[in-house]
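Help! Submission page says 'invalid entity' but I think these are all valid:
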Amino acid sequence: VSHSQTSFFAGIDLGGTNVATAIGDANGNIVAHERQLTGAPDGHAAVIGRIASSVERLASRAGIRLDAVGMGVPGLVDIAAGETRFLPNLSGNWKDVPLASCLSERLGCPVHLLNDARAAALGEAIFGLGRGVRTMLIYTLGTGVGGGIVIDGRLHMGPLGTAGEIGHVCVQADGPWCSCGSRGCLETFVSGPALAGEGVRLMLSGNAPALKRLCGGDMNRVSPEILGEAAREGDVGVQAAIERAGSLLGLAASGQVLALHPDLIILSGGVAGLTGMLTPPMRRAIQERVRMFPVDRIRVERSSLGEMAGVLGAIAVARQGGAMPAERVHP
Amino acid sequence: VSHSQTSFFAGIDLGGTNVATAIGDANGNIVAHERQLTGAPDGHAAVIGRIASSVERLASRAGIRLDAVGMGVPGLVDIAAGETRFLPNLSGNWKDVPLASCLSERLGCPVHLLNDARAAALGEAIFGLGRGVRTMLIYTLGTGVGGGIVIDGRLHMGPLGTAGEIGHVCVQADGPWCSCGSRGCLETFVSGPALAGEGVRLMLSGNAPALKRLCGGDMNRVSPEILGEAAREGDVGVQAAIERAGSLLGLAASGQVLALHPDLIILSGGVAGLTGMLTPPMRRAIQERVRMFPVDRIRVERSSLGEMAGVLGAIAVARQGGAMPAERVHP
């Protein structure tokens, strides 16, 4: 097979736990992909080395040469400088790491950074549920809670590429301290760690018998999937915890609904496995808080691309030579 | 003077207390304007009659024929139908009033409606502080608290022209009930009535001696101006009330800053007379709540157009033949 006429791009999604790497063409057809542990505690040099090896491995296996690489990073990045700025949910020192130039030197092609949730938003808008949708929000519910906003067919980036941080909207003025430095952020209630912590509290206080059984009493095994199972098996405390998370998701979303009146809200990330349980209280909270105009046509759905949204968005950024403010996604 | 080559438009700003009417050319040069009491309790037919008379009076005085009329309305309007839907801060029955066709019949030219705060946003974006600004928010702090959002040079309207309702973002889950039907909306804390109510509470509880003196003990005279004066004269309770309003304005704004990273936030309406006292706590709250990226370059300013923002935005809408979603304001 000759690929000489086709351009290929790598998309990387750097997460707190895993790094996903994929190679695809300009139409988002993935020819190879893999996933490995991030291993952030090993330091950023080791992480960058592993990512570069993964990209090289995939490219050589597919027998192609890369035109460019796009990379989603969990936090604040300086898009123009290609450097990380503030990655609150990644252990180790990630301040001002010249990620783009390090990878670019090793891989021999341009590397473009953007925030991981904005990458997922772009992936959904171009290749997923967001195709043809005018205004769309995404909440990426993982170790952290990220966000992205597509307005009238454009990914909204703001002057620094930092707009869209809807996971750090305050939903409780005196709520728990957040890794970002503020308190009561949506993230402190609906992230994977937040739900796991609530599960542990319920188990330890004797209020989650099914959860305890499903985990074999091991706190380390509490996950969104197991919480969902415990809720289905009748743990009232776990049901209430998921209901509360959905309700607070709706409270945060109501602010953005009032501001932007989106057509679609997408949930993605590990916690999005609970979408079926999260959306009824989420919709109720939106209905309760947005009385100024009808909201029943706003769709709330789980990502159709799943964990591929981020790498597909990164491939889109590679394809267009970098993430730009007010990205035009579709006409 | 012959006006035969020039097009003229009327802009109307219908408020809970006053109606402003103005006539101007396509460049926003106002040739005549006036202001009268709305008198909403007289019923919508009487109000519409007074507005039409005002427009006719101004046009005949200026000796011009109108090409089109734009009108800002305090609440939810159906732009396509030209009808009012939900005007929570206007007394009397304003549900489904065919405002555009009634006025159009009487005035003999097309009449286009939009929400009053969106009209003010458009006025500021085209003729005021928002000229050349990419992303801008406006809070109209009056009887109600409206809002408007210009994103990358476009007035963001949403599918129904209802986006931008940032005065109804919840800042306190169990806060006071709002006229919109939700509770704890920003409006319940920072509107003119909210501040007046707090002033009355302080006076009655003996905690606002300067305010009491300035009002001559008459509750009816409590206004944003008098509250500002009482604060300057040393009423600690009044100072704290204004500080709290600014802080909650910042809490609400922080959600929109996280989502949109605006370059400029404009305060307008009667309460904006307190901008100098509101902005320090507002900025502190934004700094406190937005830790994900630097916010020090975001400007917070009082409207430069004052009460003319709304009529100028309405004239802009008349000029372009109606308010459209994703209005392009400047390139």
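Support: the input was valid. A stray whitespace character was the problem, and the output above is from the cleaned input. DSSP finds ten helices and 13 strands in chain A.
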